[in-house]
């Protein structure tokens, strides 16, 4: 509350300061200076170098009853038409004429031939020049508000959230490794091929037809040592094509069984 009162006081002081220059800027121009308002005077030369603005005043000084001041239009002023209807007429001998609007104004004396003898004046009034004084009042209030705007610090929070995403993506890489590990396990299945050795027990029946050709003693060892059966096939083909076909059939079956077992083991490991 105290700050608000202080601000109001400052504004009042500024307003007063602005008002003072306005009255100081206003200028009273005494027409003709020391010569005053009279015939046979070059008032056109008197106006040279002078700036008449809204808020200024013209002061006409003359002998009361011997002269007057008539404000007329431009056409009447040019021909010194003293019988024209005047816009304003002043007769006090010490007339203060306020210049309250911008533009041209024409004045002349309505007595006798005074106008034709040079007792006339035309002035061009410019807009008031006090407007520039008002801008300074607004700047003081403006700067007061910017200081409380340090909220730019809030943007610092966004940086904290971005760091989390980098850790999230790190998790996906962990899942892929399992897949490559699964295929790595299938290599161990090769040992299981020993189980297919059981099927060869049934195949011994085909060799029976070959028994007549050679000693039947050779087949028995095969069941006891499943690893040895592969060697006999190369020797048996010599006797007859039928034996080679039988052995090929057995080998194909064994290979199929081996493949099936391998697939089963791989599926079991994957599960």
UniProtKB/TrEMBL annotation:
Q: Which UniProt keywords apply?
A: Copper, Disulfide bond, Electron transport, Glycoprotein, Membrane, Metal-binding, Signal, Transmembrane, Transmembrane helix, Transport
Q: What is the protein name given in its UniProt record?
A: Phytocyanin domain-containing protein
Segments forming domain Phytocyanin: 27-127
A GO cellular component term found in this entry reads: plasma membrane
Question: Pro residues composition bias: which ranges?
Answer: 133-240
Q: Name one GO molecular function term.
A: electron transfer activity
What is this entry's stated membrane topology? Single-pass type I membrane protein
Query: Which residues does the annotated region (Disordered) include?
Result: 132-248
| PROSITE patterns found in the cross-reference section | PHYTOCYANIN
One GO term of the biological process aspect = response to symbiotic fungus
Tell me where the transmembrane regions lie.
Answer: none
Span of the secretion signal? 1-26
Q: Which InterPro entries match?
A: Cupredoxin (IPR008972), Phytocyanin-like (IPR039391), Phytocyanin_dom (IPR003245)
Pfam families, per database record: Cu_bind_like
